[in-house]
């Protein structure tokens, strides 16, 4: 199991920090050759994986990145679409402009569509491949006060992922989504700090309020990035060979529905 991805080439978008970095490290431990991409180099001299700077909200940069990977490593076997996020302000629907909606859709939906379009033909040609879309529990449980546009984009990503699986699974490609709840990352810490600053509350208060808005977290804590990475590591492995077209919620039990 430790080297079950030996010989595989994996691309992790947004793979330099947080969940993306944990996923990249997990796939590397399993033997994969891992390439990570982000808009800017994180400045980490100990970065373990091949890094390509690319803004995958731009088609030309996406195509150039895929070409570079193919030239150096060959076809991509595993794609983890982890890039996403939101810079929209809190305050509900009334504070969101067209630009906020467009940015959140670009980051969380269109970027995944764009890179899938660049990579799927080569997967179809060899009749194999795995694509994982990292979504969010907010796709099913929107937090409208602060993540309205982001939640809508993730709900769309979930629908898109299912649609893609229906079309491409018969061609040998497995496609699935993973929807984390609250995860302890630097980005989450910064987000909670911004909420605290906006509402003149403490970090503890805004953390508790956000947990409550998701219906509470029975585990009583946020997930660790490595816990999300472990699920992704399984889903891209041969052990998950019959799994496709699903959305795995990993949220410590927060989602109250079946």
From TrEMBL:
CDD domains: SDR_c
SUPFAM superfamilies (alphabetical): NAD(P)-binding Rossmann-fold domains
InterPro entries: NAD(P)-bd_dom_sf, Sc_DH/Rdtase_CS, SDR_fam
Alphabetized UniProt keyword annotations: Oxidoreductase
Gene Ontology molecular function, alphabetical: oxidoreductase activity, acting on the CH-OH group of donors, NAD or NADP as acceptor
Coiled coil feature spans: none
UniProt similarity note: Belongs to the short-chain dehydrogenases/reductases (SDR) family.
NCBIfam families reported for this sequence: PRK06523.1
Protein name per the record: NAD(P)-dependent dehydrogenase, short-chain alcohol dehydrogenase family
Species whose genome carries this gene: Dyadobacter koreensis
